[in-house]
UniProtKB/TrEMBL annotation:
The gene is ntrB. It comes from the Bacteria. GO terms for biological process: alkanesulfonate transmembrane transport; monoatomic ion transport. It is a multi-pass membrane protein. Belongs to the binding-protein-dependent transport system permease family. This is Nitrate ABC transporter, permease protein.
Length: 312
């Protein structure tokens, strides 16, 4: 008589597990270790993520801090050298705290706080740069679209672009008969070239297939400009804008030193006449920080369009 015995899957699984645990090839301790290793590995993953995040943060923060520390060290050594006349970091810091405790005071037309001087310079930069953008970007589109205009004006741009900003200032004083318009004119004429050149290069690098399709579809020039050229040229145009803003901020300091009035450049020159070297060093840092903020704002604007060549 033959009898059949049926085992449930649960029972079979338990039997197999027990057999595996009792098998000399796979000891029970090894099974327990393997079972415990899985949750331990899962718990160690967040730890590794935090370590990687901390390492990346350290690599992003520590090198600039070391660079600033090296600058302060060299500055301290120079200030302690005999006969240098350069104030040390601690003296300059105390002077900066006192200076920025009331940056918007007014004691007369030529005695105003650093805040008013900075705002006056930024206002001139905004006017000169805005005029340069209003003229330079459309001019760049025109030169890029027309080969005849490009051949006509490229030699002129190559001739005028290397001219020093200070060489344009007397022309502005002669024509406009005023310090403020002359400074704005100098910013305009020096910051217009990067926008013209970069915009024209961007237009020339638009794929010809796009323009051929537009010609087949019989699109108007305005439609070509808004739907084909502008999206393609935008990264080049923003690069030109970034270069132009940096140039404008460089130019205004030199122009204000010569024209006088209210402005960060005039403030630096006035402090030199008063032999106040600490304020001059403070002004250098203020000019650099404002330029850095302008650059960072434009990089942020450019990176919003997700073009790799404008994120750098």
């Amino acid at each position: 008589m033959v009898s059949a015995v049926f085992h449930s899957p649960l029972g079979a699984s338990a039997t197999e597990t027990g057999a595996a645990a009792s098998s000399p090839g796979l000891p029970g301790a090894a099974v327990a270790t393997a079972a415990a290793a899985a949750p331990a590995s899962a718990q160690s993953k967040p730890v590794r993520d935090w370590r990687d995040h901390g390492r990346g943060l350290a690599l992003a923060v520590l090198p600039p801090l070391f660079g600033l520390g090296l600058l302060v060290l060299v500055w301290s050594l120079l200030s302690h050298s005999s006969g240098s006349g350069i104030p040390g970091p601690q003296e300059t810091w105390l002077q900066a705290v006192e200076l920025f405790s009331d940056p918007f005071y007014r004691n007369g037309p030529n005695d105003q706080g650093v805040g008013w001087n900075l705002l006056a310079s930024l206002e001139r930069v905004a006017l000169g740069f805005g005029l340069a953008a209003a003229v330079g970007i459309p001019a760049g589109f025109a030169l890029g679209r027309s080969a005849l205009l490009g051949r006509m004006f490229n030699p002129l741009i190559s001739l005028l672009r290397p001219v020093s900003p200070l060489a344009w200032l007397p022309i502005g004083l002669l024509v406009f008969k005023g310090a403020d318009p002359a400074a704005i004119w100098t910013i305009f004429i020096c910051s217009i070239w990067p926008m013209i050149i970069n915009t024209a290069v961007g237009v020339q690098r638009v794929p010809q297939d796009y323009l051929n399709v537009a010609r087949v579809l019989n699109l108007s020039e305005w439609k070509i400009l808004t739907t084909i050229l502008l999206p393609s040229v935008l990264p080049y145009m923003l690069t030109g804008v970034r270069l132009a803003v940096g140039t404008a901020w460089l130019v205004i300091v030199a122009a204000e030193m010569l024209t006088g009035g209210v402005g960060i450049g005039f403030w630096v020159w006035d402090e030199w006449n008063n032999l106040n070297v600490k304020n001059i060093i403070i002004a250098i840092f203020v000019i650099g920080i404002v330029g850095l903020l302008l650059e960072a704002a434009l990089v942020k604007l450019a990176s919003a369009f997700s073009y790799e060549d404008v994120k750098s």
